[in-house]
Amino acid sequence: MTLKQISSAITTSRKATHSNDLTSLIESGVVKQLSGDQQQRAVARLLEVKDQAKVDSNLVTSLASLPGLTISPVERTRFPRDADIQITLLRYDIQCEDEQSLDRALNAVQASLTPLSPEDIGKQLTMLATLVVKPSGETAEDQTIRIKSLTSQLIKYPADIVLYAVQKVAESCTFWPAYAEFHKHIHWRIEKRQKLMDALVSKKVALTAYSQ
Description:
Layout: H1 20-28, H2 36-49, H3 52-64, E1 69-78, E2 86-96, H4 99-112, H5 118-129, H6 140-154, H7 159-172, H8 179-183, H9 191-211
Antiparallel strand pairs: 1-2
């Protein structure tokens, strides 16, 4: 069972953001808003790779190549007696005194967090509706409201991870899914990108405060 792939000619809303926190950072000037063209290119790249782990790996590698920028993961390792080693990413430590490199890093991570447009999410959910059993008695209007509600939640997350979540739900759910069915495929997959953004923003705030 395969959902229709979205073409590279994605329509991306300039106002679409992946989190309220990022919105406030953009409004405060800590993070620069990506242009519409930048958002479209970011989504196209995310959908071209089609692999969350590879996107994360490529992102860290590209950031590490920026002059004067050092990224160090801080992890906690556990050795359960009857299970495999468990490694938990706690945060990233950033060393950087070059504000230009820091801004480039912030743009790169923001690009990796770019969501699908509401229109494209709606198209994916509409296709999903044809593959699952809808609630008894649900009208076309009910379905439209349900899709809009889910879209308002899924637009918070990166395009590649949302598309993956919709695909997994299509493969595993018989009946029209609750939002929780999507979220369980999303929440842990965005961890690295979010922690990178957190670390870079903290460093940017510290550099800005120091220079004032």
